[in-house]
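Is pyridoxal-5'-phosphate placement plausible here? Inputs below.
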Amino acid sequence: MKTDQQIAPPDSSPGADLEFDVEKIREDFPILKQKIYGKPLVYLDNAATSQKPQVVMDTIHHYYVTDNANIHRGVHCLSQRATEAYEQARVKVQRFIHAAESREIIFVRSATEAINLVAQTYGRKQVQAGDEVIVSAMEHHSNIVPWQMLCEEKGATLRVIPMNDEGELLLDEYEKLLNPRTRLVAVVHISNALGTINPIQEIIERAHQQDIPVLVDGAQAAPHFEVDVQALDCDFYAVTGHKLCGPTGVGILYGKADLLDSMPPFQGGGEMIRSVTFEKTTYNVLPHKFEAGTPNIVGGIGLGAAVDYVSEVGWKNIAAQERELLLYATQQLSALSGLRIIGTAKEKASILSFVIEGVHAHDVGTILDQEGIAVRTGHHCAQPVMDRFQIPATARASFAFYNTREEIDVLVKGIQRVIEVFK
Ligand SMILES: *Cc1c(COP(=O)(O)O)cnc(C)c1O
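Reply from A.M.:
I modeled the complex. Tokens:
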């Protein structure tokens, strides 16, 4: 077994803040203080949803206590305050992902809705019979089913970039799939089931060489490192708020302005129109064209507070802490006999999927829960990934910057208990 000394402490990472104190950070997350069955909660299900810092909850509370009104239409003070807060949040998100303009940020319900929006507008306009859409073998169902539905409707074909046994996409195979009938490439930035960080820049470049636009599912990436949509040059980027320390029910779709402009609207209703008569409706400008009806106002504002919070913690600190946790957990878990890690790509985020010989993942999760440890078990909305590895399910521990080495030690003890029980 390897020793702890082989793992660099977070402070030795270039640029990491020497002041970073995980215990201080944990003070911002009151939920983490509780006990589960009398044991301290060890929350390792961050890839399913992250916990919310106090500032996000305070922002939501403050909004309802002082500013609540409908936005964009009211002349009264509260409506103006609410509108301003909502539009400020859009600018915060724009800066957070380095979009060129705030009108390129469309507030949606979730990453799922962001992808469906593109499939139902861009997709329905551009994809015709005989055309092709490319996804990868490690997509979340959210980035498979909308394209499948579209392809079925249009008589188009879904093509899949394969991956190797480590859980890395085969770029040579990808290259072969690109052809003049390809209308879109839709690929995940970080796999929620495997933790793989895909070489998304290269994937985008290769598609662009043939003038094919690329949608990136960034649901897992946005919480783990700085995303720069302009540097990536992606055409669409989907983010979900609740995995990013923000509230549920809000996410964003980034799209290049000229592309969004050329797309038909998604849903019809209030706000997305310029004028309506029974003969004809004309549509509003970006981003309102894609935001029909009263949006999740407080959700957007809460997401704004969340991205501010994450920025304040700092990407270097987040990267250093999560890298340390991933290395330490990988090392500790690898040493357990009968445990196999699923997803061993060279480039990985702090997501650890594993199976234990002779034990169903569900039982792993149940026994860990009794120890106060929250992990996810199942197919992680990525059934094709399970099929690829010929397993029914995995247990998955996913770490955030507020997790600690001590929590990983608790996890390891818990897994040892599982192995004992099933011996
Ligand atoms: C969670 C997740 C989604 C879907 O996010 P929702 O918030 O459920 O819409 C899509 N893709 C990946 C990779 C995810 O992890």
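Short version: DSSP finds 14 helices and 17 strands in the chain.
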